């Protein structure tokens, strides 16, 4: 049974030394009980207390690391079922499948395509994370050679997929510096796979179709000293798989069921490329730590990464750009001036449309706490008074020889009062960003 904050407090040294980062031992104890901090942060706790508190201080979902250095991928350590309760911290890792039976040239081609799956969206770089290499040949030499080719051609983290412990050990030794994930231990090979994972200090996937069997397998492997696990309940139809992922997450968080206190993995099964994208997106939402898929086309990967970016953005802290004057194109003192809010999605949408218009323009990003235009207007963060203040303070007057400002069409109601407050001539732009190119071109006529 989980200990309460007071139960934990009784076992702490009660020095209130603040070295843990909290003002009192009681405050620290409450954070341990809430699974928001680990006992290791207390430098004075006794060994006997550590033993008693180990279960209470361990995160409900263990943090598991794949890879090393700057490219390492951290999974797990989540504390809530729904992002509005707090937030999700470690985004789902997206892995692209590669079979070792491909010809050498085809492996090179596929790895090159995967390497290009890096995008920029609303000011953030987003990309796939792993290459999953499957031992479809069943032969050690072929599998190891494929692993070596991928290692030399890409800096992506690796998943080594083979159920033969001897084969996977040879491949893992070749890729040890990259700290790959081993896939997978099952009821038939669990002892041998656990031995390899422990010997090489690598994370290991445990796989069983039935959740009860998966729990037993998890216990068996951890009893052999393997601490970093990923759970896979097998390939199932979408509804059944999401049900498994949800049950595992719920039992880990709500019931502190330790055998399920690890990140999870899902593999897409649809042969249809469009259905595969939808499957992968659903797994990202509910609640896969890793998704493995076959498709590597940019049009497939970008939507999945976009879903992941949206889900793993803190809902209480919207993405924002710096509030300032931005120059798009070769601007001069006669260039039009537009104003919008500092919500990243709003700003980058406007910027993209201005660029496509090929009309050099200034865009003023007004500070609105990261809200969109209508939200900021409704919250009285994007008003005639605040816009006038921004115009006076942002430095735009030193860059132009006119005093004309273009405001979003959705807040056209502000135009009259804004002219009174600022002394600028106000033009009402289009409501939708897609109308910006034709609007800016019309100003030149």
3D structure, described in words:
With 445 residues, the protein is α/β, with parallel strands linked by helices. It folds into 3 domains: 5-57, Electron transport complex subunit B, putative Fe-S cluster (3-methyladenine DNA Glycosylase II, Chain A, domain 3, Orthogonal Bundle); 64-311, Alpha-Beta Barrel (TIM Barrel); 325-443, Rossmann fold (3-Layer(aba) Sandwich). It contains 16 helices and 17 strands. It has helices at residues 5-11, 25-33, 47-57, 104-115, 140-153, 165-174, 190-200, 211-223, 238-254, 273-285, 298-311, 344-357, 373-378, 384-393, 415-422, 436-443, and strands at 64-66, 73-75, 93-99, 118-121, 124-127, 130-134, 157-161, 181-185, 204-207, 229-232, 265-267, 290-293, 325-328, 337-341, 361-366, 404-407, 425-428. Strands 10-9-8-7-6-3-12-11 form an 8-stranded parallel sheet. Helix 1 crosses helix 2 (25-33), helix 4 runs parallel beside helix 5 (140-153) and helix 10 (273-285) runs parallel beside helix 11 (298-311). The longest helix has 17 residues, at 238-254.
- What is the topology, as strand order, of the major beta sheet? 10-9-8-7-6-3-12-11
User: How large a portion of the residues is in β-strands, by DSSP E?
Assistant: 15-25%
Shape: globular
The CATH topology of the largest domain, please? TIM Barrel
- Strands, total number: 17
Task: Report the CATH architecture of the largest domain.
Answer: Alpha-Beta Barrel
CATH class categorisation of the largest domain? Alpha Beta
The domain count comes to 3
Distance between the termini: 74 Å
Regions with little confidence, pLDDT below 50 for 5+ residues:
none
Q: Mean pLDDT, rounded to whole units? A: 91
Please work out how many helical segments DSSP would assign.
16
